[in-house]
Amino acid sequence: MPAERRNGPETRQQIIDQFSELVAEHGFEVASVSMLATALGISKGTVVHHFPSKNLIMAEGHQQYMERRVREMYRVLERVPETELQLAAMMYTIIRAHRDDRPGTISFLREQSRFPFGGDVQAMRTLRNEFSSIMTGILRRGQIAGAFDFEDVTLTSFQIFGMCNYVWTWFRPHDPMSVEDVAAEFASNTLRGLSAGSGESRGRTVSELLAFFSDLAPALEPSYPRRPPSEDRQATRGL
């Protein structure tokens, strides 16, 4: 690989993406600079040139991951005016990331305790708070409008985040049940539970939500990375 590519932004991004894969597969303690350099076919010195410590690699990867999630939800909110559907959409985007942004999602969720130990801590906290505020904002608007009935907005948001985030422990991309199926079931159950209405008017059906998720496609982030770093390397070596 030419020197200008080793030291350029493309290699820096490959380091971030590949490290997310390694952390997702092995955990932060096991994932090492040596493993990373071998996986990318570069020297350890090149990795250290870009990131003096692996904490900094993970911190930047997590920050980019949260930027993708926040950016996606703002596009969704611009497109979807109803609070019920906004909540369903947010649940879908979180669960969809378990398939379409999988290394970043698993790395982010399994290593949250390490966030204070590297990178731009304030920027990361700001992003996490911003994402949380999107959820609480949806819930509050639904409560004010009389669509949702709950006591504590913070606890309710924690409940929904916990349900959606825990998917990483059991979902596999090749399972017969898709992320759309999971999100539609979760969202339908949640909306029924939160609904201030009664009878047939409560919530949304799974089939309604599946159709809604399909319509959301233009607002969603593309799969990330577009191809796994390992596939990029194989394609390069095959030229």
Describe this structure in words.
The protein is mainly α. The chain has 2 domains: 3-52, Orthogonal Bundle (Arc Repressor Mutant, subunit A), CATH 1.10.10; 59-219, Orthogonal Bundle (Tetracycline Repressor, domain 2). Helix content is 68%, strand content 0%. It is built from 12 helices and no strands. It has helices at residues 3-6, 9-26, 33-40, 44-50, 54-79, 83-100, 102-110, 121-144, 153-165, 179-194, 206-215, 229-237. The chain is elongated. The two termini are 13 Å apart. It comes from Nocardioides flavescens. Residues 9-69 form the HTH tetR-type domain.
Descriptive keywords:
239 residues, single chain, 68% helix, mainly alpha, 2 domains, elongated, Tetracycline Repressor, domain 2, Arc Repressor Mutant, subunit A, disordered C terminus
| Element pattern in H and E | HHHHHHHHHHHH
- How many H/I helical runs? 12
The largest sheet, given as strand count, sense and whether it forms a barrel, is: none
How many distinct beta strands? Answer: 0
Task: Identify the CATH class of the largest domain.
Answer: Mainly Alpha
In CATH, what is the homologous superfamily of the largest domain? Tetracycline Repressor, domain 2
Kindly state the percentage of residues in helix. Answer: 55-70%
Give a brief description:
This protein is mostly helical and 239 residues long. Helix content is 68%, strand content 0%. InterPro entries: Homeodomain-like_sf, HTH-type_TetR-like_transc_reg, HTH_TetR, KstR2_TetR_C, Tet_transcr_reg_TetR-rel_C_sf.
